[in-house]
Amino acid sequence: MSKGAQIAVGAVLVALLLGWYGYTNLQGEGAFQYYQSLNEFLTESRNLEGRSLRVHGYVANDSIHRDLKAKNVRFVVQNDPPHAGITNERTLEVLFLGLETPDMFKDGAEVVIEGRIQNQPSSTLFLADNLMAKCPSKFEAQAQEGGPDAGVPL
Length: 154
Prior knowledge:
Layout: H1 3-26, E1 36-37, H2 38-44, E2 53-59, E3 65-67, E4 72-78, E5 91-96, E6 110-119, E7 124-133, H3 138-145
Parallel strand pairs: 1-2, 5-7
Antiparallel strand pairs: 2-4, 2-6, 3-4, 4-5, 6-7
């Protein structure tokens, strides 16, 4: 077999492997899963039961309840931060299936929850397998307050 034919066969083989890898990872619940805001999620929640989901929101004030015997944490997520002064009428009750929460998890924390929903007759319960609390940026606070680096672009 000539050198050119060997290169062509190798290139076709690499292209087929990359195509197969991309196809298997982009099907259904692949590796690429973006989160929805709470408002987006709540408009579609009745159609999403049984699917793996990722939702972004903020922990409502005074909503965190840890059950040490059952080894879970219940809390409520709302679309806007509690300190923004916006009334959040639409909230989501979350049951995190574990006790180990991130250090940044507290009232008002920005969170991304992963799991599935369980529709109940009067409400929707989100069963979270994974909980991520986003770290607030100290640079945003400095820019708003006119701190020493307020004029420096990031």
